[in-house]
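Hi Prof. W.,

I finally got the Cell division ATP-binding protein FtsE prediction working! I wasn't sure whether to trim anything, so I left the full sequence exactly as given:
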Amino acid sequence: MIVFKNVSMRYPNSAHLFRQVSFNIDKGDFVLVTGHSGAGKSTLLKLMAGIEAPSSGQILINQQDIGKLHPNAVPYLRRRFGLVFQDHKLLYDRNSFDNVALPLSIQGITGEEAARRVRAALDKVGLLNKEKAMPITLSGGEQQRLAIARAVVSRPSIVIADEPTGGLDQTASLEIMQLLKAFNEVGVTVVIAMHDVAQVSSIAYRTLHIDHQTISTLPAQTAML
Ligand code: ADP
Ligand code: ADP
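And this is what came out:
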């Protein structure tokens, strides 16, 4: 589903983050991207989502080379991804319902169909009773669950989350991980960047570990931390 072939990446005027890395992420995988702060975890996610371009090499999403996509095709690629960030990136002047409805309205889905899907997504993350709440009145864990509802409302095939438990306590972190795992169990491929894997005990996952400009892949394992 996601294939990296000999991908190298460096930002202008800086050292290489990766050199010639190759790996596959298969449909239905639950993958953690690990590595120290500054190793390139966020950058790797941005490459997958087509937000950054590699310095060299190929990135294929469903057999399509994203470096060769026509600019008009990029919004369609983005739609396949649900993105979740550590800082939520919610719109604080709109209520929960409107935050989740936004990706649908960008696709031209409005009215009853949009409302049904927004409520289905809010229900999945346990926030159906908070649809009128403004994000600022929600706890950190609830804000992150709202961001996950917004990420999945367009039914993406891949969810990419960058430190989604950053700043959350242990209980809220575990809830977020279990929620992402629940989407994975209904077939969504999930890729999560995380520097601290202590929160994922008892969840089976594959690891892509970034170190010294290389990426090592470890097979599925269950953390017992
Ligand atoms: P991680 O997520 O593992 O902490 P990042 O991918 O955020 O790592 O960053 C890796 C390195 O690339 C850091 O040294 C960071 O400063 C640098 N970097 C990240 N984004 C940019 C950018 N847009 N331009 C230049 N350097 C960047
Ligand atoms: P509906 O299909 O009627 O919208 P579902 O209960 O199937 O309701 O899904 C509720 C929400 O959960 C969807 O809007 C979507 O956000 C998310 N979801 C469910 N299944 C998937 C899936 N396979 N891939 C991505 N998102 C999903």
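The chain has a mean pLDDT of 91. Does that look reasonable to you?

Thanks,
D.
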